[in-house]
């Protein structure tokens, strides 16, 4: 009983530490400037106000949410399509230099993304893609080393006999991938989709560098611009953060079973 009590106390403490920042976001978003300066951050306001949320939704912030949603949708679709093709080629097709090329590509994961931002920006500038949707999406829509590595390892775990039987029946590589492999890879595809959605929705550094207009501005950049030269409006920043956080919470609520299942990817049942 003592061990069980200690276990639950530890879990409760960990849960509180994890949830507390989100609680502060909610409480600050429904406070006025006077309430924020006169009460402790963790105390609820009396009465709460929706003025901050209304002000954010009445301006251009909904456009930035839509821009972020479109960017996330495009990046997720591109990742799933191009990553799957590349991973299948590295896992199943035989060509000269396959393994060397794959491990060289995976080795780029050791390079911090901040190091490549300036070269990427210079490339986009020479191509005339600064402050455009093409420049925003191009570096990541065709796949990432982590996504290709994840899908390749899953493909390699599938029985080779399935492909051999399909080849005997006259199926080509594309038919094998689409009709046999992809239905078996739904757990891995779900994992890749969830990771891509979260990383794309929270992306900040690259959108900050490559975009400058409202047509392509995303919510992370929009929230950062609420900081003025004379101070920070924490109420509006937290209201914007609460709006930005809501879709991710919805994703977790609706797909939590798949998220938990995808943590430990398994092969065929």
TrEMBL record:
Name of the featured protein: Multiple sugar transport system permease protein
Membrane topology reported for the UniProt record: Multi-pass membrane protein
Superkingdom of origin organism: Bacteria
Keyword Transmembrane helix among UniProt keywords: yes
Entry coiled-coil feature ranges: none
Keywords: Cell membrane, Membrane, Sugar transport, Transmembrane, Transmembrane helix, Transport
TM helices/strands, residue ranges: 64-90, 102-124, 136-155, 236-255
ABC transmembrane type-1 domain residues: 65-255
Major site of localization recorded for this protein: membrane
Recorded family membership: Belongs to the binding-protein-dependent transport system permease family.
Pfam families referenced in this protein's UniProt entry, alphabetically: BPD_transp_1
Organism the protein comes from: Nonomuraea thailandensis
Cellular localization per UniProt: Cell membrane
Biological process, per Gene Ontology: transmembrane transport
Record-level GO cellular component terms: plasma membrane
């Amino acid at each position: 009983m003592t061990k069980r009590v200690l276990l639950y106390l530890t879990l409760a403490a960990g849960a509180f530490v994890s949830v507390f920042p989100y609680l502060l976001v909610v409480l600050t978003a429904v406070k006025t400037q006077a309430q924020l300066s006169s009460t402790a951050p963790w105390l609820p306001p009396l009465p709460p106000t929706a003025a901050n949320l209304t002000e954010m939704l009445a301006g251009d912030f909904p456009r930035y949410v839509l821009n972020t949603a479109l960017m996330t949708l495009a990046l997720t679709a591109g990742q799933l399509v191009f990553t799957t093709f590349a991973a299948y080629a590295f896992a199943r097709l035989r060509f000269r230099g396959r393994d060397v090329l794959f491990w060289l590509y995976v080795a780029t994961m050791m390079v911090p993304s901040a190091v490549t931002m300036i070269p990427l920006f210079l490339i986009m500038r020479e191509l005339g893609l600064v402050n455009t949707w093409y420049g925003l999406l191009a570096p990541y829509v065709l796949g990432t080393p982590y996504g290709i590595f994840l899908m390749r390892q899953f493909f390699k775990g599938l029985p080779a006999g399935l492909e051999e039987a399909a080849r005997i029946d006259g199926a080509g590589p594309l038919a094998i991938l689409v009709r046999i492999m992809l239905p078996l890879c739904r757990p891995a595809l779900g994992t890749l989709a969830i990771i891509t959605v979260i990383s794309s929705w929270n992306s900040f550094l690259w959108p900050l560098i490559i975009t400058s207009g409202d047509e392509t501005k995303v919510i992370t950049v929009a929230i950062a611009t609420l900081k003025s030269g004379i101070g920070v409006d924490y109420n509006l920043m937290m209201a914007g953060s609460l709006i930005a956080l809501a879709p991710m919470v919805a994703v977790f609520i609706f797909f939590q079973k798949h998220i938990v299942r995808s943590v430990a990817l398994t092969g065929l049942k």
